[in-house]
Amino acid sequence: MAKKIGVLLSGCGYLDGAEIHEATLTLYFLDRAGAEIICMAPDKDQADVIDHNAGQPQGDPRNVLREAGRIARGNIRDVAKVDAAELDGLIIPGGFGAAKNLCSFAADGPSCSVDPGVSTLVTRMHAAKKPIGALCIAPAVVAKILGADHHVELTIGNDKGTAEALGAMGAKHVDQVVDDIVVDEGNRVVSTPCYMLATGPAQVGAGVEKLVAKLLAWL
Question: Domain span at residue 19?
């Protein structure tokens, strides 16, 4: 029976939502491995909306779930309505949306809050010993939820300031190169730097392929 893997998206577009290369490569490697994919996102307005050509804010509000549906081809669910019992594993692609829409790390740093649906799902996945993967800046979400109590081991690459912020939330940061992963066997968490370090999709794909393979190997 195919393993059911949740992919938690945060919108569409790296400046205000999910990083599209990271999300798409995650979907590709999961599909290639024969996993059943369940895409999800919070059903709420984005923290902001950015014109990706100009790099400047736009005035029109956008909904995280509807925008993420562009990546999921419309097959997407509200994260608040997804039960951890439905899933065998969970992967969170990066992009600024992970730090703006899944949590408020981009604005608030270590004192950030996490979307309630996201927090509940990640907490219950961890309690059930189901594996969690985090890409790019998404380890900040996991650090905020699991760091204080479980001191989860993560990587965002080698950015000192971000690494220190993860440490302030109780996580243990490990420097890692762009195409490799950091594995926390005890917490069943795996992470990879992606566009925290990558210069293109090939480098992102190398890390995501390893992350997906490790997450599925736990199952």
Answer: 4-217
